Amino acid sequence: MKPKVTMIAWNQNDNYVVTAVNNHLLKVWNSSTGQLLHDLVGHADEVFVLEPHPFDCRIMLSAGHDGNIFIWDITKGTKTKHCFNMIEGQGHGAVFDCKFSPDGQHFACTDSHGHLLIFGFGCSRPYEKIPDQMFFHTDYRPLIRDSNNYVLDEQTQQAPHLMPPPFLVDVDGNPHPTKYQRLVPGRENCADEHLIPQLGYVATSDGEVVEQVIGQQTVDQDEPGLEPSILDGMIRQLQLEQDQRTGADPESAPSGPQNGEGTPRRG
């Protein structure tokens, strides 16, 4: 097999360079002389993640498609910590990305099954307030383009950035309780009746009929106790300024793509 480098990273003070090779080895080099210092053995598949510790120049994290996550002391060439991403009933999950927290006490990883893995010191209580599966009901919805070539949500015929905040659902599209819906920015102060999505039955491409969130109740911005959306106000202001510059008369405007009334251009 011809060796190929799959990933490269400098440590925190740039004294060392770590390379991941497709023979599953990690190699530690002196960045000034180019001397090979250590071969790090442990991975059983290709490695595409190398992440230096934010302030400890000795520490380097590696993760790969074998589901292994290693913390290395690259000055000694030794393994400090090993974690394995085992998924019950499905084998291991390939790790696609990892990042340290700014304080270096935690790191988070994402895997091939859509999981977010958080490692660190202390208890997991702060993370228990959120459900195990979190998706927006608008994820993967089809988009179309209008006559001006602007992108619209196919179902609501609205520009995606002008749509109301989405609902949180599980992997099967079932909405989460209202206490979780308030975690979505823009829904923090909504009344309970505005946190209950409208469900309906839709047919999939293979003919199967499934229950999904097909619409959402929007919040009236004039309702007492609710603040108007700052983003919507900025969009209206930008649209007003552009209308003033173009004369605000669509018939007298020059030819070419112009902002439709229902699909203002993003600032």
Automatic annotation (TrEMBL):
Quote the InterPro entries the UniProt record gives.
Bromo_WD_repeat, WD40/YVTN_repeat-like_dom_sf, WD40_repeat_CS, WD40_repeat_dom_sf, WD40_rpt
TM region(s), chain numbering: none
Q: Which residues form a coiled coil?
A: none
Q: Write down a Pfam family by its short name.
A: WD40
Single GO biological process annotation from the record: regulation of transcription by RNA polymerase II
Taxonomy, superkingdom = Eukaryota
Entry GO terms, CC? nucleus
The segments labelled Disordered in the record are 239-267
The WD repeats lie at: 1-39, 40-82
Protein name, per record: BRWD1 protein
| Source organism of the structure | Donacobius atricapilla
